[in-house]
Amino acid sequence: MPTTPLPNLRAASSGIARDINRRVVLNLIRSRQPISRAGVARLSGLQRSTVSLITEQLIGERWVIEGATGRLPRGRRPTFLRLNDRRAIIGIDIRPIQTTVALADVNGHFITQEAMATPADPQTAVDQFITRLRHLLDSHPQMMFEGIGISLPGRFDFQSQRLVFAPNLKWPEFDLKTPIERATGLDVALENAANACVLAEVWFGQTQGVRDLVVVTVSEGIGTGILMNAQLARGLTGMAGEFGHVPLDPAGPVCTCGGRGCWEVFASNRAALRYYLESTSQAGGPSFQDLLVLAEQGDSRAAKALDTMAHYLGRGMRMIVAGLAPEMIVVVGELTRSWHRFGPVIESEVSAQVLAGPAPRVVPAQDGAVARLRGTVALVFQKHFGASVPV
Length: 391
Ligand SMILES: [Zn+2]
Fold this sequence. Notes:
This protein is α/β, with parallel strands linked by helices. It contains twelve helices and 15 strands. A five-stranded mixed beta sheet has the order 6-5-4-7-10, with helices on both faces. It has a five-stranded mixed beta sheet with strand order 13-12-11-14-15, with helices on both faces. Strand 8 and strand 9 form a beta hairpin. The chain is globular. The relative contact order is 0.12. The protein binds zinc ion.
């Protein structure tokens, strides 16, 4: 086997350093804008000349623009930098029942978003997405579109660029990327929803400095995204993070994956609805949102169903804590709207089983309703600013 010559290794290393510095600078401008070049240098610890070089690149690529001039008591007035909010990203969050298509600026602010029923087959979905995407592009001629991020309720294999495991969506293996790229002329980045939420936490969340983090997405199923040592863990064929399909009770109810008694069978939104329906003779079922409202209105059966779900969520998280020892677990999903109900139960279940050391913080995602959509925006960021994350 040929050995890699050392000069190439050096080139790769400096390339990685440049990549990291670019991300550091962009992220500082994003989080502290408006900020001067001197401010970026001070906060990043990078040399002024490095910051100037990277800034000129980012301005040339129109990620960053120069804004108002700052005021100092004397001397040269610094020019402030901010992200170019005419640069836009399109996000598509595919869930088994509903899909949201949204337009966001580079600050992660959503300009428009619309929901549609998720088609039963991927070909119809692609056709419908393309119609909506063309309309979105045509109706915002002033924006510069950077790319499309798609989050999926299943695992995505980076090698084959295909969706490989989506038991709740029930789509066959399919290439979503090529037809959408061809129709729009934009790059498409796809990722499992929980992994996308990890990236959203890193880019837009309050997790700066956290290198070991697990996101748990709770909806029709349960997904987890794992950040270990500041790197997203994908595993073989993108399948890392399927804690939702680890059986808690092999004699439990049948799961969409074909197994029995998986964690998500006991702790997903669907599980709470099952607990509720088991306790009532009412015909027709409420939605999970209805269940949250019913519980707030004092419906004791709804409250009990959610409490059971919360216990199972916490119990399942013990696997994550024992196996990965994250510093933080971020929960994404409609349940975060009733965090006062879920949070304490989950935390007590988790802390009851910590083997040694402190229990991880379990926190709801900021603005849980759009957390998954933010993940789609973060995917496009990630594509431009490298494979590891800025922490
Ligand atoms: Zn399963």
